[in-house]
Write a structure and sequence with these properties.
The complex is a heterodimer of chains A (381) and B (236). With 381 residues, chain A is an alpha+beta fold. Helices cover 36% and strands 8% of the residues of chain A. The N terminus of chain A is likely disordered. Chain B has 236 residues and is mainly alpha-helical. Chain B is globular. In chain B, helix 4 packs across helix 9. The longest helix of chain B is centred in the first third of the chain and has 23 residues. Chain B has 11 helices and no strands. The chains are: A alpha+beta (381), B mainly alpha (236).
Chain lengths: 381, 236
């Protein structure tokens, strides 16, 4: 027999196998023993012994608990399959700080609320678009209490910026009061003037940021993850925003915006002189208008040559702001809010108001009824 | 009733209980065949941990497929088919070749373990309890330590030679020699015709012989000077 186990002359594998297996009749086996070459016979005999040796190999002991483990796993898989094939997956609710309130809104109430909202929004839009005098600025004397919006002598306050702050309540508080900036009644006849909390601690508050956006003083500062791809990403953002109902992007801001950003911001220590002609604050004994210390702002450095400045116009809503931030974070990198000392008014913004879209504003979505906020975006490379 | 038939009837009875939801019957059914399944996995895969995983996989498939057993083949044949498929799939996916050497604990335990044969064909003389018995019958003395060392050496050589074979060849040898399946049963397990079984079996034997001769330069259990041990080992 050769090393490859091929057929011998006149014999087939079945016969040889039968010889090895001991399945041949005695006479047949005797015939084979007489006719097979000695070497072949020796190999076949060795195969017989191998067969017996394999049969004698001991049975290895199975690990303990194998059957139990298999049964447990089968049960788990059965439960898993049951869940996947139709049973609704039980959703474990995540604990929330704010309890979910049941809706009290019936269809009639919803209609009344919608009508009231339309009236309010329309009125606010008209007021917001009312031609104003001097631009607003921070830290100016005679500023509206409770805000950092300074008003000129003949300037009316922006109702959106001051929200529902009663004008007759001075912005006073006691040291340590955490509700700085909000009207607080005190029993003391000598109100204590306290500075507002640093903006840095509150720039993420949606209401505050939204107020800055509406007043034209919000800037976004972006630290890109891939500085070399910023132009491409900005172009993509511009294209992507073309169909958005909440925001529009321009990959490159107008030149006047870049100039405005390059204007150095006033430092914290810059004293703000009160305007002696400004309105007096109630509660003071002729001592002059209340001086509200300017808020410590995270100022933005003038854009460098390599920095990119894009422009955003967003609907003045928290949703729009959140959407923009999420998109910029996803596309570009880390996004931070910063505050400009003076509002930025782009020439393009004025031109936008004379479009057909602005004339037919009532045919668009409610987010387009109010004037959109312009926000520069500085991508620091 | 022959033992094999009695075992088969017990299996069918337990199977019916399992289908009625009797978890205890399922545990008993698995425990009855646990060693058989693991032993086959171990011999094919040549690695203890992998064999345990594959054995568990096979058991899970068996549990999941209990309703699919139609009784045309013996339960052990059906069970063996599942094990073989799982092991060969494992080999194909992980390409395990010539795994780590047998652990010494297995080797020492194997000397005193049960019969080495399968359920159908009988175990013949083994190195376990029956092997000791056959040696006792064939000999009037206990094997000496030298003989025991030689037996261990030959067993180790044989296992190495088996490990050197292709998995398919190793499988068919184990099914025939260790499990004692006949050609029809092997054909059922492997899904091949009887003629193909014979052809493959013969070639597997020839391959094993070639490996042994090439590696060791001698046959296992070959011409012993006194023939005593060889005669005592002839169990078939």
């Amino acid at each position: 027999m050769n090393g490859h186990g091929t057929n011998f002359d006149g014999l087939d594998e079945a016969t040889l196998l039968a010889f090895v297996e001991g399945e041949l009749a005695a006479a047949q086996e005797a015939t084979l023993r007489r006719t097979l070459p000695g070497e072949v016979l020796a190999s076949l005999e060795a195969m017989r012994r191998d067969r017996a040796a394999v049969a004698r190999l001991p049975e290895p002991a199975a690990p303990a608990g194998l059957a139990e483990a298999a049964m447990a796993r089968a049960q788990r898989e059965a439960l898993h399959d049951l869940r996947l094939t139709g049973e609704q997956e039980m959703v474990i609710p995540v604990s929330r700080v704010a309890p979910v309130r049941r809706s009290w809104l019936t269809p009639a109430r919803a209609a009344m609320a919608a009508a009231a909202l339309l009236g309010v929004v329309g009125g606010l839009t008209l007021i917001a678009n009312w031609p104003s005098g001097k631009p607003r600025g921070a830290g100016r004397p005679g500023g509206l209490p409770g805000t950092d919006i300074a008003l000129g002598p003949n300037q009316t306050p922006d109702p959106i910026a001051i929200a529902d702050l009663p004008p007759e309540n001075p912005t006073v508080g006691t040291p340590g009061d955490e509700t700085l900036g909000e009207p607080v009644r005190t029993a003391s006849a000598d109100p204590v003037v306290v500075p507002l909390a640093p903006v840095a601690a509150r720039t993420d508050e949606p209401a505050r940021v939204l107020g800055l956006a509406r007043s034209g003083r919000l800037v976004l500062r972006v630290t890109p993850r891939a500085p070399g791809r910023c132009e491409q990403q900005l172009a993509s953002l511009e294209a992507r925003s073309a169909t958005s109902q909440l925001w529009r992007a321009r990959a490159e801001a107008p030149a006047d915006i870049r100039v405005a950003l390059a204007t150095p911001a006033p430092t914290e220590k810059t004293p703000v002189e009160p305007n002696p002609d400004g309105p007096h604050m109630a509660g003071l004994d002729g001592a002059g208008p209340m001086i509200i210390k300017p808020v410590t702002l995270p100022s933005i450095a003038p854009p460098r040559v390599q920095d990119l400045v894009a422009m955003l116009r967003i609907a003045p809503t928290a949703d729009a702001l959140g959407a923009v931030r999420a998109v910029l974070t996803e596309q570009l990198g880390v996004v931070e809010f910063a505050e400009m000392p003076a509002p930025l008014v782009s020439a393009d913004e004025a031109a936008d108001q004379a479009t057909l879209e602005s004339v037919l504003w009532w045919s668009g979505s409610p987010t387009q009824w109010a004037r959109w906020a312009s926000i520069p975006v500085v991508i620091e490379r | 009733m022959p033992q094999a038939d009695e075992d088969h009837q017990d299996d069918l009875r337990l199977l019916e209980d399992c289908r009625r939801g009797d978890q205890a019957a399922l545990g008993q059914l698995l425990s009855r065949h646990q060693s058989r399944m693991f032993g086959l996995c171990y011999r094919i895969l040549r690695h203890r941990e992998t064999a345990a995983e594959s054995c568990q996989d096979a058991m899970v498939k068996l549990i999941q497929g209990l309703d699919g057993y139609d009784g045309r083949a013996k339960f052990t044949t059906w069970l063996t088919r599942i094990v073989i498929n799982v092991c060969l799939s494992k080999l194909r996916s992980e390409k395990i070749r010539r795994m780590a050497s047998l652990d010494a604990e297995f080797g020492a335990r194997g000397r005193g373990s049960g019969r080495g044969g399968g359920g159908g064909g009988g175990g013949g003389g083994g190195t376990g309890a029956e092997g000791t018995l056959s040696r006792t019958i064939g000999q009037t003395r206990e094997p000496s330590s030298a003989e025991r060392v030689q037996e261990d050496e030959e067993r180790r050589s044989l296992e190495e030679a088996l490990g050197a074979l292709d998995p398919e060849q190793r499988t068919i040898l184990l099914l025939r020699d260790q499990r004692g399946l006949d050609y029809d049963e092997i054909g059922d397990v492997l899904g091949i015709a009887v003629g193909t079984v014979k052809s493959r079996l013969f070639r597997a034997r020839a391959a094993l012989r070639e490996v042994i001769e090439r590696r060791l330069g001698r046959s296992i259990g070959g011409d012993e000077p006194e023939g005593g041990l060889a005669a005592g080992r002839e169990g078939r």
